[in-house]
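Subject: ABC transporter ATP-binding protein structure
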Amino acid sequence: MLEATDVRVEFGGRGGRRARAVDGVNLTVAPGEIVALVGESGCGKTTLARTLLGLERPTSGQVSYDGTPLSYTGRRLRAFRRQVQLVLQDPMGSLNPRQTVYEAVAEGPRIHGLPDEEKVVADALSRAGLRPPERFFLRYPHELSGGQRQRVVIAGALALSPKVLIADEPVASLDASVRGEILSLLLRLRDDLGLAALVVTHDLGLAWNIADRVAVMYLGRIVESGPTEDVLTNPQHPYTQALLSVLPESPERIVLTGEPPDPTRIPTGCRFHPRCQLFAATQDAEACRTTPLPTLTATADPQVACHLAPVPTTA
């Protein structure tokens, strides 16, 4: 449904250096599938999501929707955005405080000239769990709870009947009691409407509860991917192991040293080796310092890019 093929996104930096925010990513989201893109802040998750939405143009590589390369001309990009919609992290920040719920949800259908506006808005609010929808038409964001505001944001995306949702930390700003409701809503939308979703998150617990497949990103590149159960119960990459170690049920805490490297100065060899707990404990790991790892492919099978992982890397 949605595919990134060797996508690279670079930004200009100080001193003429280029920051490689996304550095050779292959990723697919199949119809009806929920994929979790996980990693710490600054790893390139949001830049990749923006590129998949057509908000950023890749420096090289290609984004495709339904087998067709994404066109950046106005009319075709507008048609694409009806099919792929964004759900933002902070509903209070993404909703206009001067707009009613009706106006917020109706904005997309008006831009795209959809008929029967009131019915479209009511149906979208109902699917997002705000019933009866008419009760919410004239309310303002400050009159709603955090969970209700996030449902309004989701309704705004659903109003255009998309095939794919890209959700950037969709429950990060919500109370724990509400998080489960929003995750259940996303699963129900997948089951009822056949929606696919890419969920961007740093929370592996969220990925476990909602995702069919997980892609772990570090410093602009996916370093491990596969079915959720395989990746989260038997992580092969030391970075994935470290991310999982912060969960309450983890028997051992792995503390990574230092901060993520500067994306204008990608380390040679394995980009994770300066912080890697396996590399630090290994006497003979010259390949980690000097030998680049191949980019992972877009397969659904488990794969890992690591010289020290117990399974082979995938070229």
